Amino acid sequence: MSKTPYEIRLELLKLAKDSLYEPVFQKRQNLMDEFMSKREVFVGVEGPTEEQLALQFPTMPDFPSTDMIIEEAKKLNLFVSEQ
């Protein structure tokens, strides 16, 4: 059964979203892992020490905007549509 143009567009949007979100999820996870490992050093330590006070929660990268996802989907569509 063939897909309608709307179904194809929806799949391209999903693929674009996933391809843009995955690196952000990975970066966020890496930052959290690094933060938590630094924080574990202080478990059981009397505090708060200067190091504990200096440990800041990391700034997380932003997720892609809807416009970015649509632009990526257009690129994918262009690639798929080429002959």
Which regions are unreliable across 5 or more consecutive residues at pLDDT < 50?
A: none
Structural class computed from helices and strand pairing: mainly alpha
Q: Beta-strand level of the residues, as a percent range?
A: under 5%
The tally of strands reads 0
CA-based gyration radius: 21 Å
Order of helices and strands: HHH
Largest sheet features: none
Shape: rod-shaped
| Amino- and carboxy-terminal Cα gap | 22 Å
Helix content: 55-70%
Structure characterization notes:
There is one protein chain. With 83 residues, this protein is mostly helical. It is built from 3 helices and no strands. Helix content is 69%, strand content 0%. α1 packs across α3. The mean pLDDT is 89. The radius of gyration is 21 Å and the shape is rod-shaped.
How are the SSEs placed, and which strands pair?
Blueprint: H1 5-40, H2 50-54, H3 66-81
Give a nutshell description of this structure:
By secondary structure, the chain is an all-alpha fold. It has helices at residues 5-40, 50-54, 66-81.
Main attributes?
83 residues; mainly alpha; 3 helices
